[in-house]
Amino acid sequence: MEQLLSLETPLVVMGCVLLSWKIVRHIWSFLDVGKDPVTVLVTGAAGQIGYALVPMIARGEMLGPDQPVIIHMLDIEAAADSLNGVKMELIDAALPLLKGVVATTDVVEACSGVEVAVMVGGFPRKEGMERKDVMSKNVSIYKAHAAALGQHAAPHCKVLVVANPANTNALILKEFAPSIPEKNITCLTRLDHNRALGQISEKLDADVSDVKNVIVWGNHSSSQYPDATHATVNTVAGEKSARELIADDKWLKGEFVARVQERGAVIIKARKMSSALSAASAACDHMRDWLLGTPKGSWVSMGVCSDGSYGIPAGLVYSFPVTCHNGQWSIVKGLKIDEFSREKMDISAKELMEEKTLAYSCLN
């Protein structure tokens, strides 16, 4: 009997282990152990930025490497064939995080159930067009998009406006989508922020990852103010002020500001096309930091609805330094503003007030 037990004991133990594993697997099958897909809208998806952006989203560069996504792509009827081609390429890329893709010219279908919206589509200024003509076209587009998002997107949808004039397009969207909290509507100035980081990195021959806390104030236009006053750089001797390391205020107030302000135009001159790869990358950076949080001790630049901070008129969509936590952004308060910065910030605010007036005149 003892001999029999000694022979059967390993078999009994193995049987118990197998039974336990079957029970675990059975329970596991009833649990949702993975993340639910997030539905992401990209408008203007057949364009250059959209073409660069959608694979980045599908690879996890926007929402994280373990977050499945369903991508809704919207474009105008004239771009329907190109849009379908983008869809085919996404499918052909066999990206594991991509759980579905919709390519449509119907704004209601595109906006239905979306939780993240990246508004790349807009009407570009063409030769011979007046500023008011461009504004009128974009006011019409963003008023329609606002209505569709307000009625059909998820209640917690977060919106990033990329298309220019980005700040004012975001303002119009905010005004005409009252069901979306105003803190959930932002515009892209992260591209300018990243450009500022790159300029300081090159100037100091430092890794760009070692540079932080530049600020882009104001409008995503040539009136923006790239500010390195509070920027720091990690060095072998510890964290140092970028301003002290550069030791050239003339460069910081002149060439640095101009290079960031004019970088888009310089790229157009070189490529004969506007920035696409860097804009798509910046859109991913913006949404990732907004949703997943900014690193401790760091801030980023985002176009957000002003609460009156730093003397900027409340209600304007203006670029501020912000920190993000639990999917919410907060304007960094209490930074010292010198006279030079004050003047530059006010110039950009004035331009945005003029754009707001022009946009509202187009509504009439």
From TrEMBL:
<dbReference type="GO" id="GO:0030060">
    <property type="term" value="F:L-malate dehydrogenase (NAD+) activity"/>
</dbReference>
<dbReference type="InterPro" id="IPR001557">
    <property type="entry name" value="L-lactate/malate_DH"/>
</dbReference>
<keyword id="KW-0520">NAD</keyword>
<dbReference type="GO" id="GO:0006099">
    <property type="term" value="P:tricarboxylic acid cycle"/>
</dbReference>
<feature type="domain" description="Lactate/malate dehydrogenase N-terminal">
    <location>
        <begin position="39"/>
        <end position="185"/>
    </location>
</feature>
<feature type="binding site">
    <location>
        <position position="164"/>
    </location>
    <ligand>
        <name>substrate</name>
    </ligand>
</feature>
<feature type="binding site">
    <location>
        <begin position="44"/>
        <end position="50"/>
    </location>
    <ligand>
        <name>NAD(+)</name>
    </ligand>
</feature>
<feature type="binding site">
    <location>
        <position position="138"/>
    </location>
    <ligand>
        <name>NAD(+)</name>
    </ligand>
</feature>
<feature type="binding site">
    <location>
        <begin position="162"/>
        <end position="164"/>
    </location>
    <ligand>
        <name>NAD(+)</name>
    </ligand>
</feature>
<dbReference type="InterPro" id="IPR022383">
    <property type="entry name" value="Lactate/malate_DH_C"/>
</dbReference>
<dbReference type="InterPro" id="IPR010945">
    <property type="entry name" value="Malate_DH_type2"/>
</dbReference>
<comment type="similarity">
    <text>Belongs to the LDH/MDH superfamily. MDH type 2 family.</text>
</comment>
<feature type="binding site">
    <location>
        <position position="125"/>
    </location>
    <ligand>
        <name>substrate</name>
    </ligand>
</feature>
<feature type="binding site">
    <location>
        <position position="195"/>
    </location>
    <ligand>
        <name>substrate</name>
    </ligand>
</feature>
<dbReference type="InterPro" id="IPR036291">
    <property type="entry name" value="NAD(P)-bd_dom_sf"/>
</dbReference>
<feature type="binding site">
    <location>
        <position position="131"/>
    </location>
    <ligand>
        <name>substrate</name>
    </ligand>
</feature>
<dbReference type="InterPro" id="IPR001236">
    <property type="entry name" value="Lactate/malate_DH_N"/>
</dbReference>
<keyword id="KW-0560">Oxidoreductase</keyword>
<dbReference type="InterPro" id="IPR011274">
    <property type="entry name" value="Malate_DH_NAD-dep_euk"/>
</dbReference>
<dbReference type="Pfam" id="PF02866">
    <property type="entry name" value="Ldh_1_C"/>
</dbReference>
<feature type="domain" description="Lactate/malate dehydrogenase C-terminal">
    <location>
        <begin position="189"/>
        <end position="357"/>
    </location>
</feature>
<protein>
    <recommendedName>
        <fullName>Malate dehydrogenase</fullName>
        <ecNumber>1.1.1.37</ecNumber>
    </recommendedName>
</protein>
<feature type="active site" description="Proton acceptor">
    <location>
        <position position="220"/>
    </location>
</feature>
<feature type="binding site">
    <location>
        <position position="75"/>
    </location>
    <ligand>
        <name>NAD(+)</name>
    </ligand>
</feature>
<dbReference type="InterPro" id="IPR001252">
    <property type="entry name" value="Malate_DH_AS"/>
</dbReference>
<dbReference type="InterPro" id="IPR015955">
    <property type="entry name" value="Lactate_DH/Glyco_Ohase_4_C"/>
</dbReference>
<keyword id="KW-0816">Tricarboxylic acid cycle</keyword>
<dbReference type="Pfam" id="PF00056">
    <property type="entry name" value="Ldh_1_N"/>
</dbReference>
